[in-house]
Amino acid sequence: MNHKNLVVLVLSVFFMALADAAHSNTTNVEESPFSVNSTVEDIFNVSIAHTEIDANYSHILVVSSKSGQPCLLAALNATIQISYEVLEVIVHESYETTEDIQLPEDVSAHGVCGGNQSHLLLEWGNGTFHLNLTFSIKESDLVSENRTWSMTAISVSYDLDNLKVFPAASEASVMSYEKSGLTLFTTELGRTYACDRDVTVQVGPEDKGVTVNFHNVKLAAFGVTSSEFPSVTDDCAAEGDSNDSEDVLVPLIVACCLSAIVIIIVIGYVINRTIQRRREQSDYRAM
């Protein structure tokens, strides 16, 4: 064996060893709960309880752990506004249109509960639509007594190949968008978050992404002990009322300032005209 072949062999063995080491390290890393290598049914243990609770919430989605203990409760309504390109056959040009997709009551729900992060995956339309909600405990509150959680990420995917939902779509492909770094529906552990106001989230770019509008939301993502929502509820009404008052207060202040400016201008004009008239009268008398 010449020196050239020996060098090639040594390098080959070296890179193979590196690959094995990398593989052994990656096997210790926890896979994402939504890994494409496993089916949802293999990973999640989820039950859907169609429990009548009030006029706004017709059913509850109950995510249970492997031991059967409920760990996440959700009752929500959502509308997804999707923009897509439609091909005009006659002029052979495309234009943009929108579809409002309502979250159905018979949505297929899956989920997973973790120590500091939980997921709720909603699927409907025979696999056409997927909505993944991620809930996380605030990192700075991990050692505090009154820990809080929020919805920190949301991802949406839909299949434009479904022509019943997206007629004349110019492209048949699966579109996926994700937004992280959110702090929505913040509440304390062991409490229920309830809100009957609209909460809008823009996922992806404004020109090509989707808009998710939540309404009539009731959630309990951590500290759940049964299939019923915790009795202590953090309502968004108080926060929403304060926001509404601020929204009214700011235009009111601006209107008052503009009115004051107009009044000052009118008074200045009247004073100026009065002075000019007196001057004209004094000049006339002097003549």
From TrEMBL:
The chain crosses the membrane at residues 248-271. Keywords: Cell projection, Cytoplasmic vesicle, Endosome, Glycoprotein, Membrane, Signal, Synapse, Transmembrane, Transmembrane helix. GO terms for biological process: establishment of protein localization to organelle. Gene3D superfamilies: 2.40.160.110. It is a single-pass type I membrane protein. Pfam families: Lamp2-like_luminal. Plays a role in short-term synaptic plasticity in a subset of GABAergic neurons in the brain. Belongs to the LAMP family. This is Lysosome-associated membrane glycoprotein 5. It comes from Elysia marginata.
